[in-house]
């Protein structure tokens, strides 16, 4: 056969090619010496604990840590000696220099975590005694704890739980120096130990004092948000694919329609031709327009949970008045309504907060009568967008528009947008210097910020005070666990014009070209990737249900664990019977719980002190049973020696005792003999043994 492929050289010589499963599979793992196996497990545990930090570590630190762990694993497999101490000191000096180069300091959170990862990796190359292993264990637990400085999300908590379990398993293995106990046995023992400490941990979580900002250290999700203190054309469109949760809302009653869900964020009134920013008033305080909220009808009570945003802005449902019993109240933040209607926090939002408030969908705000400070909202930068200004001047010259009010002019501009062929898209491209001109006359394609910016420029050119309001509009169609979810992709920009006798009027020109964006919260989404497309093709309903279930679980975690605040702690004490509890009551209850736990532990230790080692108790009972049949063995004789004595004294009749006796050698000393047998087989052998 001329087309036949030649046989491998190993087959021609009569041998078989190396089996990768034998070289790297479970069989190879069992062939490793006890020390090498335990070391590799510890290194894998350390690598697992380091992985969440990779997003925050410099690239050189990641490469160095992985290289050091791989080096230590190779030394363990080969049984080679550890490197000299001077080489480790040299690596430490280099790492300190790189840390200072990366962070500009050797102290602080980021630099400290970087050095901790380096020290952990270097310490594995000093595992010469149990003392070194103990240092590694404590460094490992501390490294796991530092992950909470970056995030306390549910996935991170599950990751930390697995890391702690693995570290406890390695710790148990280090205290089982005799024989070769299986990893499963050590893992079960570690899990049992952790479960014994779980009640105490729960008590500490419930009763430990909540100390304000200390609980706001993590920066979950890096504080991503659809809101910003400024807006340039295209900025909101960049967030259209960010489906992370921005806030959750639960209504105490029927929820409003999607087109009524406007969450007011930063108000932008200053325009330099390229970017919209917060207005810096040019008039005195007495001459500036004020919020002056006026509410009508019944209020809508709601509970809002806002994710970290790193901005001192609180996006509340329009209109939430700044009045007692209606405004949100936070234990660690101060919140107040600014004159432009934006809710301001006293510092950037660095942790998740929750509060109840009342909104009035029927409302008015802003001055009813003209004030000189409104002139700030008609200013336009000179030399920009001349064609748009000319178009606005031509509109004003129409006979029916010369005396028209702000409402009529706004309606005419929106009508032009609806009829002039404008298109709503999240990929409008890059605009030049006169972006509004280019959008209004040439491309006629843009996202919500393009429509709102052009609308405000035209209204100001018509001498009507106007500004841009950014925030969120709409929500997911289906509530999850009773909460309506507002995502960053719901970030939106709309306009606000001033009408004499009424105040500020909301105008959303985006609705003129895509009504479903506002009426049904329909968002434009980018083309999904291959994995997302495949999942949707298989079962979009299943994917949606799984996502909702996970978000409901994540919300429970946020509400009941991360948001367990001082107020909730006091509410729990009230439920337990305390009247008007305070911090002193919490401290006394915590001290009493710790004393009770200490007494329980002391009683357990006193009782357990009288117990014998189960192995010694088993060997004593074996000697007593053997003595009944005339087989005398010494207390120090190992199981194999005792089996030889049984065969010498009882002959073939004692074989049911000898075989399981040798099997007892395996669990204690790591011998493969009698694998699968244990103490139960020994007692069965006694029952089968016939008297002489």
Would you mind describing this structure in some detail?
Helices cover 47% and strands 11% of the residues. The strands form six sheets. It has a five-stranded antiparallel sheet with strand order 8-3-15-17-18, with helices on one face. It has a four-stranded antiparallel sheet with strand order 11-7-2-16, with no helix packed on it. The protein has a three-stranded antiparallel sheet with strand order 1-5-4, with no helix packed on it. Strand 17 and strand 18 form a beta hairpin. The radius of gyration is 36 Å and the shape is elongated.
Brief write-up:
47% of the residues lie in helices and 11% in strands. The protein has 692 residues and is an alpha+beta fold.
In terms of quaternary structure, the protein is: single chain
β-sheet strand percentage: 5-15%
Classify the helix fraction into a percent range.
Answer: 40-55%
Mean pLDDT rating: 79
Give the spatial strand order of the biggest sheet.
Answer: 8-3-15-17-18
Could you tell me the number of beta strands?
18
Query: With helices defined by DSSP (H or I, 4 residues minimum), what is the helix count?
Result: 25
Shape: elongated
Distance between the termini: 72 Å
Largest beta-sheet characterization: 5 strands, antiparallel
Radius of gyration: 36 Å
Structural class: alpha+beta
Spans of at least 5 consecutive residues whose pLDDT stays below 50 are 1-18, 212-217, 219-225, 673-678
């Amino acid at each position: 056969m001329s087309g036949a492929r030649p046989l491998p050289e190993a087959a021609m010589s009569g041998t078989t090619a190396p089996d990768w499963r034998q070289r790297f599979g479970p069989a190879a793992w069992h062939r490793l010496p006890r020390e090498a196996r335990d070391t590799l497990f510890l290194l894998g545990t350390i690598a697992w604990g380091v992985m969440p930090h990779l997003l925050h570590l410099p690239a050189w630190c990641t490469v160095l840590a992985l290289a050091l762990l791989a080096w230590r694993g190779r030394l363990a497999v080969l049984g080679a000696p550890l490197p000299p101490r001077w080489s480790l000191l040299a690596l430490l000096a280099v790492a300190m220099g790189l840390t200072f180069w990366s962070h500009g300091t050797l102290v602080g959170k980021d630099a400290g975590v970087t050095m901790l990862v380096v020290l952990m990796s270097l310490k594995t190359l000093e595992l010469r005694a149990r003392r070194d292993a103990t240092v590694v264990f404590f460094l490992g637990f501390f490294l796991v704890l530092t992950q909470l400085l970056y995030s306390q999300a549910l996935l991170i908590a599950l990751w930390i739980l697995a890391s702690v379990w693995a570290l406890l398993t390695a710790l148990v293995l280090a205290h089982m120096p005799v024989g070769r106990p299986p990893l499963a046995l050590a893992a079960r023992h570690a899990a049992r130990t952790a479960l014994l400490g779980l009640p105490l941990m729960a008590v500490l979580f419930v009763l430990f004092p909540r100390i304000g900002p200390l609980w706001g250290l993590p920066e979950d999700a890096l504080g991503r948000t659809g809101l910003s203190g400024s807006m340039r054309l295209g900025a909101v469109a960049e967030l259209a694919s960010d489906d992370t949760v921005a806030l959750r809302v639960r209504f105490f009653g029927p929820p409003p329609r999607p087109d009524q869900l406007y969450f007011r964020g930063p108000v932008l009134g200053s325009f330099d031709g390229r970017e919209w920013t917060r207005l810096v008033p040019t008039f005195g305080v007495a001459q500036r327009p004020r919020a002056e909220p006026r509410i009508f009808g019944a209020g809508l009570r709601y509970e809002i949970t806002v994710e970290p945003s790193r901005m001192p802005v609180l996006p509340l449902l329009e209109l939430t008045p700044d009045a007692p019993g209606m405004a949100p109240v936070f234990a660690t933040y101060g919140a107040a309504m600014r004159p432009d209607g934006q809710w301001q926090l006293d510092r950037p939002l660095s942790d998740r907060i929750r509060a109840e408030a009342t909104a009035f969908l029927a409302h008015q705000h802003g001055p009813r009568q003209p004030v000189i400070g409104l002139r700030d909202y008609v200013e336009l930068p000179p030399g920009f967008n001349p064609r748009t200004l000319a178009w606005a001047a031509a509109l004003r010259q129409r006979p029916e528009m010369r005396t028209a009010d702000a409402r009529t002019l706004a309606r005419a501009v929106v009508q032009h947008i609806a009829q002039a062929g404008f298109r709503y898209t999240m990929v409008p491209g890059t605009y030049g210097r006169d972006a509004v001109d280019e959008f209004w006359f040439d491309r006629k394609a843009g996202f919500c910020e393009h429509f709102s910016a052009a609308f405000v420029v035209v209204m100001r050119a018509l001498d009507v005070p106007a500004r841009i309001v950014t925030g969120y509009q709409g929500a997911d169609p289906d509530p999850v666990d009773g909460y309506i979810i507002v995502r960053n992709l719901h970030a939106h920009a709309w306009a606000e014009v001033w009408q004499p006798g009424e105040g500020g009027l909301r105008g959303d020109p985006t609705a003129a070209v895509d009504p479903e964006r506002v009426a049904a919260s329909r968002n434009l989404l980018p083309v999904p990737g291959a994995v997302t497309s495949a999942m949707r093709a298989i079962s979009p309903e299943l994917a949606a249900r799984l996502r909702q279930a996970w978000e409901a679980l994540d919300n429970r975690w946020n509400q009941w664990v991360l948001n367990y605040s001082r107020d909730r702690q006091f509410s729990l004490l009230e439920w337990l019977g305390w009247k008007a509890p305070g911090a002193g009551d919490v401290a006394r209850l915590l001290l009493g719980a710790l004393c009770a736990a200490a007494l329980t532990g002391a009683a357990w230790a006193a009782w357990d002190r009288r117990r014998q080692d189960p192995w010694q108790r088993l060997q004593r009972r074996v000697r007593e049973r053997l003595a009944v049949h005339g087989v005398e063995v010494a207390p120090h004789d190992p199981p194999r020696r005792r089996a030889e004595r049984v065969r010498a004294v009882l002959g073939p009749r004692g074989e049911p005792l000898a075989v399981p006796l040798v099997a007892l050698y395996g669990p204690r000393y790591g011998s493969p003999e009698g694998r699968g047998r244990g103490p139960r087989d020994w007692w069965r052998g006694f029952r089968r043994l016939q008297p002489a």
